[in-house]
Amino acid sequence: MKIKSLIEIDYLSILEINGKGSSDLLQGQITSDMEKVSGNSCALGAICNIKGRVISSFIVSKNPSKEDSFFLISHYQVLQNTKEVLEKYRPFYKCSMEINNEYNFFGMKEEDLTTDFPETDLNYSFQNYESFFRLHYLNKRFHLIASKSTEIEGYTISSDMDPWKLDEIKCQNLDVNPDIIEKYTPHELGYHLTSRIDFEKGCYTGQEIVARMHYRAKKLPTISVKTTKKRVKPFDEVFDLEGKSMGVILSNARSDDSTSCLLSLNKNFSDQELDL
Fold first, then answer.
1. Are 142 and 226 in a shared domain?
2. For a surface tag, which of 57, 75, 205, 226 has the fewest beta carbons within 10 Å of its beta carbon?
């Protein structure tokens, strides 16, 4: 019998926003459209500073246990910055916010999810179950499971994050971590390609700069996935064969004897070979 496993995603936590004004608060500050967040759909989002650089990124969902309550799910350290930003505007809305550390997060393969939980509806990106809720985005192989329990019956827990990271890289997704807060624009992180930026919604902090770059820049950063035999690490610089700087490695993960990398390539890149 094949043993099924979950990947423990131990860096994730929740910023919980409660109250009648919580949706309006978020709508005015984050890059995603709160009207697209419902009882069966979540959204990717981010917060930018006034210069259009990314402070934090997260998944936005409803709180399955409360009315007028929303979850921002992200790196636990990044959520502290997110809370500090939103606290500036909170007094103008009828809402409160707090860090919620009650949930444990796991990556579950879609084939295991649909086999063991037949009530799963893959048309929903957010779904509440009896003992957990799940989130899904960007057609990833893994679904994100949030449970108040440290285990799910019938599954072992794995601490090997590489399969989760590989899935994120293939889908060109990057979460902001504490080392890159306010260092990159959404386009440099590929957020215009992964629905984190909703260009049809109203204003949010930094929106004018982000929109100007999107619609007026002669060339946007290129987001690419490459493999290498070299040992590399996130935010190493990338060069072409002539030694000219082409950009940076946003994230990487090992698979067998190679490393998959998510690259952010600058305006110097014109599809030439890279020194990887």
1. no
2. 226
Q: Does residue 209 sit within a domain? A: no
pLDDT in tens, 127-168: 999 999 999 999 999 999 999 999 999 999 999 999 999 999
Report H helices in 103-194: 110-116, 162-170
pTM to 2 decimals? Answer: 0.94
Please report where in the chains the tokens 């049809």 appear, as a residue: 200
7, β-bridge pairs: 107, 158
Task: Dump pLDDT digits (tens) for 36-52.
Answer: 999 999 999 999 999 99
- Torsion angle, alpha carbons of 204, 209, 213, 217, to 10: 160
231 plus 166 within the same structural domain:
no
In this structure, is the dihedral angle defined by the CA atoms of residues 112, 118, 122 and 125, taken in order, positive or negative? negative
Q: Based on the domain organization, do 238 and 144 belong to the same domain?
A: no
Alpha-carbon gap, residue 46 to 55, rounded angstroms: 7
- Distance CA(128)–CA(239), nearest Å, equals 46
Residue 140 domain boundaries: 4-170
Residue 152 sits in the same domain as residue 229: no
* Of 262, 260, 230, 236, residue with least CA distance to 248: 236
Q: Using only C-alpha atoms, what is the Rg of the chain?
A: 19
Where residue 160 sits, what CATH number does that domain have? Answer: 3.30.1360.120
